[in-house]
Structure formats: C-alpha cells, structure tokens
C-alpha cells in the first residue's frame, strides 16, 4: 500500500498487487520499486511540490520495470486529486470530450450521471454440476454475462462438454466469455475455436500468446487481447489490426489507470470494445479499477451498441476484507457511487496489518 499526502494532510492511496504466476514481478519487487521511487522523488517533499498540476503528468512516472508499482503511484495521485477536488477518479480520467469511432463515424454519447454498467462473473469448470449451478446462481442475481477459463489438450475436451451443459441450462440470452490464457498453439487454437463456435461465445480471450494473436483474426469466433497487451509493440499492432475486436484492461499489469484509459480511447477510435477487469487486487486496487470501468463506459457509450459488461464482480480474494466496502459494486452492476477519489477507506486494512501508513 502506498500513501501520498499533501500539505494539509489529505491522503491518496494506491495498491501494488502483482498476481503470482501471471506477472513477471513479485510483491517484494513492487515494494522495492516503490521505495526507490519515493527515495528518488524526495520522501520529505509534499505532493504539492511533486506534482504541480492535477491530474499529474503521468509521463514523468516511469517505473517501467514494475507495472504494479506504477499502477499504485497513479492510483494514489488520482485518489488524492479526487479528495482535493471533491470528485471521483472517473471524472479525472475522462473530461467529457467525445470519443469518435472511425468505424461508426459518430462520437460516444456518454452515460447519464445515474447510469450503471453490467458485471460479468467467473464460473468454475471443475465439473458440469458446479458450473451449471454457478451460472444459474449468477443469472438469478441479474448477471447476464459469464466467463470461464479454458484448458488445453484433453482438458479442453472436458471443458467443452461442461460448457455445452452450461449453455443448455442458461439458454442463448446469457453471453459467454472464454479465456485460454495463451495456452494453445496456433494449430490447436484454430481447431478449438472452430469447435467453440457452436456455443456462440461473445469472444475468446488470448487463445495464443503474444504476437501469435495477429495470425488468428477472422476465424470462427471473435477474439480478445489481454496478456498480449503487456508488450507495447504487440499492443499497437493489435489495435491497428482486425485480429481482435475486444481488449481486456487490467491496471496492475498494464502500469496504471492512465495507460488503460489511453488504450481504451485508441481501441474505441478503431471500432474495438474495451472490457475492464481485475488481477485479484485488494479493495484499493479493485475500487480504482471500478472507477476506470465507469470512466471508459462514459467515454465510449453508444459506440458499439449495448454496454459491455466489466469483469469487476467481487472476487474470492476480497472475502479477506469483508469489512471494506467497494461502493461502486451493487448487486449485478457497477454504479457511479458518490465518492471522491476511488472511494475506498484503507483504515481497516492498515489496522489489521499494523502498518504505519507509509507502505
């Protein structure tokens, strides 16, 4: 946890939470990067002298070797800016200027102040009964989009059978998103995507890793990019190509809310949709991602028909902090709650950990 404090004692909070097994860095690596950044910035200086304009020029925040640390700094700066101005982070990320799609030739309409964004939820594919029960429970909550992780080889055959049972149970009106986490080879991906077409998935995320995504476009089902966006060169090529129709944005591995917002605007201009999701962060990181989801929804509303669901439903990791409210989450939707900054009070986290508030 990172706290930035201004001259009158207002605080902004950020969280660095690289996901073990899916990030090139560890929590210790991110913590060291934050300590080095604070030392370089001058730990005794106030935020007023460190950043002269609000929101800050985030280009000055490098930390390229630790995306999670950079995400924490950007979140903390925006949270403090929100407290100083009495506004939510979503209003700092998007100033209301229209985003125009090259494919539609029209600007985004924006969502009304009381608008909300639907959530998708993750279901397990451990067995057919568990998957069907999870999907039916989500539908009863009002969730209209579900997501599942796919395996490779023989595991894919099992997953496909389970998904057929899920599709039969929920019918055609529930959208299904699938994610292979880049685990397939190109030939395997082509075979699997053809077989998945019967399920009519909304998209399949990262069927192959990295630049191989560029070779799969125009297949049986729409594709989405996630981990391949971590490489700026590959991300730029994907945004300029027809290989994917959706980009999946996670602030921690992409280096911050600002970079995600920039990618979303570029994607919208090219006729692509953006879906904000999490990397199993704690409440501060999750609240910041919720504000990003609301900002992108407002900036791109009306460009691609129905508002895309965001992957920001409460995840299992947040159960460790049941006493910390994420005010943007309400039932099956993400709502623009009346908050300043990201709206997360870190006090219960600090009291439980015994931290002194600096990191």
Describe this structure in words.
Helix 10 (257-269) packs parallel to helix 11 (283-300). With 359 residues, this protein is α/β, with parallel strands linked by helices. It is built from 12 helices and 12 strands. The termini are close together. The chain is globular.
Tell me the distance between the termini: 5 Å
Fourth CATH level, the homologous superfamily of the largest domain: Enolase-like C-terminal domain
CATH class bucket of the largest domain? Alpha Beta
**CATH fold call of the largest domain:** TIM Barrel
The helix/strand order is EEHHHHEEHEHEHEEHEHHEHEEH
- Report Rg: 20 Å
**What is the approximate shape?**
globular
Q: What proportion of the residues is helical, as a percent range?
A: 25-40%
What's the structural domain tally? 2
Tally of DSSP β-strands: 12
Whole-number average pLDDT? 88
Q: How would a crystallographer describe the biggest sheet?
A: 7 strands, parallel
Q: Helices and strands: which structural class?
A: alpha/beta
